[in-house]
């Protein structure tokens, strides 16, 4: 018998997703690996939800790990989504969670510039698409927000969430040139201090009717961690985000 406090094996989940789902309480996470045939092994935390028909793949910001979503992912599960928080090769330690993918990449003498994480994000999408029939959303923070606006062109991705995207890459205007081609619903926001100069230039080149832009009205921060601030503006951002996710 399967109890409501347990994620349970969802018939739509296979592989490591199914294993974690069968072992994990609702709102909690289990560690899993994504092992491409060719490429870097990725470590991820899966937050299962046996009632969800959508899964959000969560990517972290610079010098961080999947631990960026320790507080955010349980809220998303509560709101009806399953979540997979992935360690990318460009990152470090946050919230007492080490970035295992980054350590693995360093041990293999792989380059770990921001742009080098793009294949990791694609492998995460590949794995999820092959192992669940849930609708896929992707979510990026800072540099991975920019990359999400690029890899999000994958037809299997239905929505893109970008917290603080910007021109963080070596080639000037690289992101603006790439993001202009994204033709699906996208939620874009950033801290109030960076919004006009860093985030809005990205929004301005995108297809207007696909973009839901949110500029905070008060205290805010860079990347997804803005959702962890105890402020009225945080509640506003959560409300705008959830409205977008539920459309």
Describe the structure.
The chain is an alpha/beta fold. The protein is built from eight helices and eight strands. The chain has helices at 15-23, 72-78, 100-107, 118-131, 143-151, 174-179, 192-204, 232-246; strands at 30-34, 42-47, 54-59, 82-86, 135-141, 157-163, 186-189, 211-214. Strand 3 (54-59), helix 2 (72-78) and strand 4 (82-86) form a beta-alpha-beta unit. The longest helix has 15 residues, at 232-246. The termini are far apart. The model is unreliable at 1-10 (pLDDT under 50).
What is the element layout, followed by pairings?
Elements: H1 15-23, E1 30-34, E2 42-47, E3 54-59, H2 72-78, E4 82-86, H3 100-107, H4 118-131, E5 135-141, H5 143-151, E6 157-163, H6 174-179, E7 186-189, H7 192-204, E8 211-214, H8 232-246
Parallel strand pairs: 3-4, 3-5, 5-6, 6-7, 7-8
Antiparallel strand pairs: 1-2, 2-4
Largest sheet: 8 strands, mixed
Q: Please tell me the total number of domains.
A: 1
The fraction of residues in strands falls at 15-25%
Terminal CA distance: 34 Å
Largest sheet strand order: 1-2-4-3-5-6-7-8
Number of helical regions: 8
- The name of the CATH topology is Rossmann fold
CATH architecture: 3-Layer(aba) Sandwich
Mean pLDDT: 95
Using only C-alpha atoms, the radius of gyration works out to 17 Å
Q: What structural category characterises the helix and strand content?
A: alpha/beta
- Looking at the structure, what is the overall shape? globular
Question: Oligomeric status of the shown chains?
Answer: single chain
**How many beta-strand runs?**
8
CATH homology group: Alpha/Beta hydrolase fold, catalytic domain
**CATH first level: which class?**
Alpha Beta
Enumerate the spans where pLDDT stays under 50 for 5 or more consecutive residues. Answer: 1-10
Percent helix range = 25-40%
Order of helices and strands: HEEEHEHHEHEHEHEH
């Amino acid at each position: 018998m399967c109890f409501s406090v347990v994620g349970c094996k969802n018939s739509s989940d296979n592989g490591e997703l199914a294993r974690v789902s069968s072992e994990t309480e609702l709102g909690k996470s289990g560690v899993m690996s994504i092992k491409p045939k060719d490429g870097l092994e990725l470590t991820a935390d899966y937050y299962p939800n046996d009632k969800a028909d959508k899964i959000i793949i969560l990517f972290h910001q610079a010098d961080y790990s999947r631990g960026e979503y320790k507080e955010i992912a349980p809220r998303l599960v509560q709101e009806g989504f399953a979540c997979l928080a992935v360690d990318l090769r460009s990152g470090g330690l946050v919230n007492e969670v080490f970035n295992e993918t980054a350590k693995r990449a360093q041990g293999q003498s792989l380059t770990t510039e921001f742009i080098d994480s793009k294949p990791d994000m694609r492998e995460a999408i590949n794995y999820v698409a092959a192992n669940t029939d849930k609708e896929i959303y992707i979510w990026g923070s800072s540099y991975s927000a920019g990359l999400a606006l690029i890899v999000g062109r994958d037809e299997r991705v239905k929505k893109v969430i970008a917290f603080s995207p910007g021109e963080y890459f070596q080639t000037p205007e690289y992101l603006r040139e790439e993001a202009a081609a994204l033709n699906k619903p996208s939620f874009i926001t950033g801290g109030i201090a960076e919004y006009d100069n860093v985030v809005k230039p990205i929004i301005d080149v995108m297809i207007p009717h696909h973009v839901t832009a949110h500029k905070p009205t008060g205290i805010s921060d860079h990347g997804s961690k803005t959702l962890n601030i105890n402020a009225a503006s945080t509640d506003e951002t959560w409300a705008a985000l959830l409205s977008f996710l539920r459309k």
